[in-house]
Amino acid sequence: MSQTKNTLLQRNRDPYLRIKILIGVILAGVFLFPIIWMLFVSVKPQDMSITAPLNWFTPPYTLSNYASVMGESDVLLWLFNSAFVGFATTVITLIVTSLAAFAISKIKFRYRRAIFLFFLAGMMVPGEATIIPLFEIVKSMNLLDSYTALILPMTASPIGVIILKSFFDGVPDELMESAKIDGCSHWRLYWNIVLPLAKPAMAAIAIFTFIGSWNNFLWPFLAIVSEELYTLPIGIPSFNSTYSTTYMLPMTVNAIASLPVIIAFLIFEKQIVKGVSFTGIKG
């Protein structure tokens, strides 16, 4: 019996497993090297001259760059703005997309298929093509240069509606009908039955919405003028342009901006991987 098991294990063993692991380690090193280099540069003295690439990774080290950045820039304010805008955008997006998807999937009304096709068509329009009309709409509503201008336009998510609609379609109609017989309203069906079943899809949408908001540059660059409303993608380039002759302080600002995302990835790694596999989004 044991010999049969060993034979089966040998047959199922991938002959290229070691090669795949080696390639994976090399690719991981390629992607991690810029982050490691950034962290080492951020703790190098500002007046230190670098004569060889190896000097970036050897002592001396100092944390004075972080103190200088905190005192000479508004990086903490930029962090707060990015986190606040990202959190608010994510919450509103989840509420709007889940309600829309529930209505299209589980409530029978006229033109619901046409509305769903409208959401599908929205995915074919690149975001850059809507920037000018979006700017004109926000301008006509006197919302420019405000948190509202940063949050509300980014809450429209056709992909979120499509993903949740597909997920809600998998909820048996018999379950919905039995709940209606027991007196459940549409709101209770949405809140108590459908929404708890959609946690994986909601988590995936939340992750990608927050990341998209955190990294968004074009729209905040157009919609914001006041420096106190700058987010990280807007504030960092303005800071880096002031210190274009040295690497240390710009890399320190980038390290401060990157550390929250890196920590969040380490904490929610499983959810992010599940989100990628669930939505089919790559890259």
From TrEMBL:
Presence of keyword Membrane: yes
Highest rank taxon of the organism: Bacteria
Matches recorded under CDD domains: TM_PBP2 (cd06261)
Record domain ABC transmembrane type-1: where: 79-268
Keyword list, A-Z: Cell membrane, Membrane, Transmembrane, Transmembrane helix, Transport
Entry keyword annotation includes Transport: yes
Swiss-Prot/TrEMBL GO biological process terms: transmembrane transport
InterPro entries attached to this UniProt entry: MetI-like, MetI-like_sf
Membrane protein topology class: Multi-pass membrane protein
Family in the record: Belongs to the binding-protein-dependent transport system permease family.
Entry protein name: Carbohydrate ABC transporter membrane protein 2, CUT1 family (TC 3.A.1.1.-)
